[in-house]
Amino acid sequence: MLQIHHLEPMHWAIAGATIAGVTLVLQAIGRRSLGLSSGLEDLCSLASDNPVFAHTAAEGRAWRLPFLAGLVLGGVASVALAGEWQALWRVEPLDSFANFSMPAKVTWLFIGGTCTGFGVRLACGCTSGHGIFGMSRLQPSSIKSTLAFMAVGTVFSNLMYRAVWG
Questions:
Q1: What's the pTM?
Q2: Whole-angstrom Cα distance, residue 136 to residue 21?
Q3: Distance between alpha carbon 85 and the CA centroid of its chain, in Å?
C-alpha cells in the first residue's frame, strides 16, 4: 500500500463529479460503458487465446487498454507530484490482530482477490460497471448486483469487525 504524506484528500464531490463526467462522455460520445473487469479481460486476452476473453477483446481493446494505462500512469503521476511516498505492507487492523508474515499476508490477499474475481464473474461485471454505469441506466441486473455487492460487503465487514476485532 502506498501512503502519500502531506496531501489533503480530494473532496468527495469533486471525485463524484469527475466519475459522472467520465460516465456521460463515454455514453454520449463513445456509446461505451466502462467496467474495470472488462479491462482485465482485455489484458488477459493479450496473453491467452481462451474463448472466455474473446468477446471483450473484439469490442473494446482499442480504447480500454489505453484507459487502463492512463489509470496506472495517473497513479504514478500523483505519487511523483506528491514528492514523498513510502511503500507500506501493513494492513490495519488485521496486522494488529494477526501479525501475519509476508507469505501469509500475500496468501490472504490472493484468497480475497480470488473471491472477488469469482464474484465478478458470477455477477457478469464488477462494482464499477454495475454500480456506476448500470445503475445510471437503471438496468435491473445492475441494480440487483449492486444490492448484492453492498449486502455481502456490509454483512462480511460487520462479521469481521465483531468476530475478529470485537
A1: 0.62
A2: 12
A3: 22
